[in-house]
Design brief:
Belongs to the 2Fe2S plant-type ferredoxin family. The chain is of the alpha+beta class. The chain is built from nine helices and five strands, in the order αααβααβαβαββαα. A five-stranded mixed β-sheet has the order 2-1-5-3-4. It starts with a helix and ends with a helix. The structure holds FE2/S2 (inorganic) cluster (FES). FE2/S2 (inorganic) cluster binds at residues 137-140, 142-144, 146-147, 175, 177.
Length: 214
């Protein structure tokens, strides 16, 4: 069985920064949108969590069948999330005032609706991945709209340099790959990349990755 360091393609004496950089690189490679698979994605995430927890021997980190997120701090921002595809399936609108109440009552799968906390200095996308979710992305740097979310309540930071037009940011559209919570509670609809004004800003995951790796 590989050790967590093997899974992240790291030497066992790698420092914290090297571990984080390797995790970001490997989680991209393993993402189903980028030619990986959900199982590989979960394995990379589990390896990262094991290293953070100091469980670095192969036998000390049996791969989890269900998601085991790190214990959140109660004071960390709490995100309630909903998949945009659920809106289409149910005839709901982003502007519905009771959108999240309807979602809470709909007995949705945990991939589609739920809550998680975002640890300090994590972006929303990183936090989603650390909780085992495969939210869409491409560049991870603010240059496309693949990772866009609609913020219904609360807010996410938005760097000065990003691709979104002001009419989208005015409507609460943010980029999960670079956005960190700036309120204690948020409600976000993720997977909004197919909204009309965002569709043309999207990048195909594979070719963009290959081009940016050149
Ligand atoms: S993945 Fe491209 S802006 Fe977030």
């Amino acid at each position: 069985m590989d050790s967590p360091f093997d899974v992240l393609h790291l030497d066992p004496d790698a420092d914290d920064e090297a571990v984080k950089q390797a995790y970001r690189r490997r989680v991209k490679e393993a993402h189903p949108d980028h030619g990986g698979s959900k199982a590989e994605f979960q394995r990379v995430r589990a390896a990262y969590e094991a290293i953070k927890a100091g469980e670095t021997l192969p036998e000390s980190w049996p791969e989890p069948e269900v998601e085991q997120a790190t214990e959140p701090e109660d004071q960390d921002p709490l995100v309630e999330y909903l998949d945009y595809e659920v809106l289409a399936d149910n005839g709901w609108e982003l502007t519905d005032e009771d959108l999240f109440e309807k979602a809470a009552a709909a007995n949705l799968d945990g991939e589609d609706y739920g809550q998680f906390r975002v640890e300090e200095r994590d972006t929303l996308l990183e936090a989603a991945e650390e909780h085992g979710f495969t939210w869409p992305f491409s560049c991870r740097g603010g240059a496309c709209a693949n990772c866009a979310v609609a913020v219904v309540e609360g807010d996410l930071s938005l760097p000065v340099s990003h691709v979104l037009p002001s009419e989208m940011t005015d409507r609460g559209i943010r980029l999960s790959c670079v956005g960190e919570p700036i309120t204690d509670d948020l409600k976000v609809v993720y997977n909004v990349k197919h909204l009309p004004a965002l569709d043309e800003l999207r990048l195909p995951p594979g070719p963009y990755e290959w081009a940016s790796d050149d």
